[in-house]
C-alpha cells in the first residue's frame, strides 16, 4: 500500500449563528473541532506508516 502523504480536512457542520449559539462560541467550537481532528491524526499517524 502506498504511503499517505497528505490528508485534507473539511469541517461539515451546520450551525445557525444566533440560533444554536453566539457567533464567538460557535467559532471557538469549530476551531476546537479542527484542532481535535489534527491531534487525532498526529496521534495515530504511526498506524498508517
Provide a quick synopsis of the model.
With 49 residues, the chain is an all-alpha fold. The chain has 1 helix and no strands. The longest helix has 22 residues, at 23-44.
Structural commentary:
The chain is mainly alpha-helical and 49 residues long. The protein has one domain. Helices cover 45% and strands 0% of the residues. The chain has one helix and no strands. It has one helix at residues 23-44. The longest helix is centred in the C-terminal third of the chain and has 22 residues, at 23-44. The mean pLDDT is 82.
Beta-strand residue fraction:
under 5%
Radius of gyration in whole Å, from Cα? 15 Å
**What class, by secondary structure content?**
mainly alpha
The overall pLDDT average reads: 82
Termini Cα gap: 10 Å
Give the overall shape, derived from the CA principal axes: elongated
Poorly predicted ranges (pLDDT <50, ≥5 residues)? none
The percent of residues in helical segments reads 40-55%
- Main sheet, how many strands, which sense, barrel? none
- Series of H and E elements: H
> How many domain regions?
1
Count the strands?
Answer: 0
Query: How many alpha or pi helices?
Result: 1
Amino acid at each position: 500500500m502506498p504511503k499517505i502523504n497528505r490528508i485534507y480536512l473539511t469541517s461539515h457542520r451546520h450551525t445557525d449563528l444566533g440560533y444554536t449559539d453566539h457567533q464567538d462560541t460557535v467559532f471557538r467550537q469549530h476551531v476546537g473541532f479542527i484542532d481535535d481532528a489534527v491531534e487525532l491524526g498526529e496521534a495515530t499517524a504511526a498506524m498508517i506508516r
